């Protein structure tokens, strides 16, 4: 069975023992409510290192007061079973007092890549993400850490803060796992009604259509507008963004062309009370 | 001779070699312009660990645009000689591009202990300090790091951020080194004219008098006012603060008594163009 530890001291002791035995260690930070997407991160880590540690911590600092911190799905027993089923070696599941003891006063803030898109829609989000991920990387001291491309801007923020703070870890991005119809797997998909779940496929479909249109010579602005219209027609009540962006720093592209070689289409939209995000190589 | 390295890679290689040989390592972060106060930090580290690393980096992020970044005294050859004279093993002297490469976007901010006193007088100061010290601790990965009590609030900020980010290092505070007349040693004392240097002793004298008065039963507020008056009489043109504070979190004390067991008197005042700070156990 996957071993569960709840303190930084136990985590470090286990990682130290593995490293002393010459085994490289991979960390997979999660907020639990695990699905096949998370398990694919563990499997990817297992191709690169001998030992894998998944962390489960629903981080209060990355939720605003009006967001779904209390409602966010939790279920440690099932998470542990799923991790066991793929041979994950350790589950680090700290409580809030282990992560943020009384008197905790520190926040890690970024400018640049953290500011548009999710940063504009959720102002405290990336400060919370950068703070907890930095802590997890310092706590576990892994050789690699794996994050899903599903949260693409988060991945770029983590790459940036890891470089900026000289954290001695390799950040690995893993391809988004998708349902058969193409919807990106997400813990928040559990919020969707059956009707909403059926409509949700419009998100990846609109994105694929926009990328195909731009690659066929359509103007970026026109393709973005058509994508937003397709989402509205499919029943999405609000589109926060549907933007072609520079794949590294997420800055805006010019109106007429994908500049250079690397672009990414990123989208966030609301279906009822559920906010879905997705992104694709463009 | 004390070896000088300029890259994180060389620093880590040397520290790793020492640790692999079973030798514990101490880091002494400085901004150069070394004096006996800094050397006393190296000597204190040498009583605790086998190997000492001093860093010299004048950190632009902790100076505001109107402050003395350009004028701050620099002299690497003399710094290296002084470190050699006390047997310091390594000098880490990175350039700005090694510490803050193009695209650097991260700042570590604290609330609480960073907010009053120096934090009020210099709003970006502790964000800059916390960011560079965190980087140095992650870069060097020392067993201990030694900071002077001369910068007492900085020491408390560093203790806080080290705990908050789970950095695996022991923070050691070292007593303030003083000239024979009692003035705290500081690189900024070099800015003082001979007349100002003679007047500067009023700062530690006023502090000792205030502490003696309070210990004899004087009200804190009255002792603080008398101290400020003494500094004005001695030629200080402005007193930023002259405050008895809780020694741990630097919160305000009640007006009548030093609450609990641990209090600290902290002061900052201007003599001509030079800002002097000092603090004492109260």
TrEMBL record, chains A, B:
<feature type="binding site">
    <location>
        <begin position="185"/>
        <end position="188"/>
    </location>
    <ligand>
        <name>ATP</name>
    </ligand>
</feature>
<keyword id="KW-0963">Cytoplasm</keyword>
<feature type="binding site">
    <location>
        <position position="62"/>
    </location>
    <ligand>
        <name>(R)-pantoate</name>
    </ligand>
</feature>
<feature type="active site" description="Proton donor">
    <location>
        <position position="38"/>
    </location>
</feature>
<protein>
    <recommendedName>
        <fullName>Pantothenate synthetase</fullName>
        <ecNumber>6.3.2.1</ecNumber>
    </recommendedName>
</protein>
<comment type="similarity">
    <text>Belongs to the pantothenate synthetase family.</text>
</comment>
<keyword id="KW-0566">Pantothenate biosynthesis</keyword>
<dbReference type="InterPro" id="IPR014729">
    <property type="entry name" value="Rossmann-like_a/b/a_fold"/>
</dbReference>
<comment type="subunit">
    <text>Homodimer.</text>
</comment>
<comment type="pathway">
    <text>Cofactor biosynthesis; (R)-pantothenate biosynthesis; (R)-pantothenate from (R)-pantoate and beta-alanine: step 1/1.</text>
</comment>
<dbReference type="GO" id="GO:0005829">
    <property type="term" value="C:cytosol"/>
</dbReference>
<dbReference type="Pfam" id="PF02569">
    <property type="entry name" value="Pantoate_ligase"/>
</dbReference>
<feature type="binding site">
    <location>
        <position position="62"/>
    </location>
    <ligand>
        <name>beta-alanine</name>
    </ligand>
</feature>
<keyword id="KW-0547">Nucleotide-binding</keyword>
<feature type="binding site">
    <location>
        <position position="177"/>
    </location>
    <ligand>
        <name>ATP</name>
    </ligand>
</feature>
<feature type="binding site">
    <location>
        <begin position="148"/>
        <end position="151"/>
    </location>
    <ligand>
        <name>ATP</name>
    </ligand>
</feature>
<comment type="function">
    <text>Catalyzes the condensation of pantoate with beta-alanine in an ATP-dependent reaction via a pantoyl-adenylate intermediate.</text>
</comment>
<keyword id="KW-0436">Ligase</keyword>
<feature type="binding site">
    <location>
        <begin position="31"/>
        <end position="38"/>
    </location>
    <ligand>
        <name>ATP</name>
    </ligand>
</feature>
<dbReference type="InterPro" id="IPR003721">
    <property type="entry name" value="Pantoate_ligase"/>
</dbReference>
<dbReference type="InterPro" id="IPR042176">
    <property type="entry name" value="Pantoate_ligase_C"/>
</dbReference>
<keyword id="KW-0067">ATP-binding</keyword>
<dbReference type="GO" id="GO:0005524">
    <property type="term" value="F:ATP binding"/>
</dbReference>
<feature type="binding site">
    <location>
        <position position="154"/>
    </location>
    <ligand>
        <name>(R)-pantoate</name>
    </ligand>
</feature>
<dbReference type="GO" id="GO:0004592">
    <property type="term" value="F:pantoate-beta-alanine ligase activity"/>
</dbReference>
<dbReference type="GO" id="GO:0015940">
    <property type="term" value="P:pantothenate biosynthetic process"/>
</dbReference>
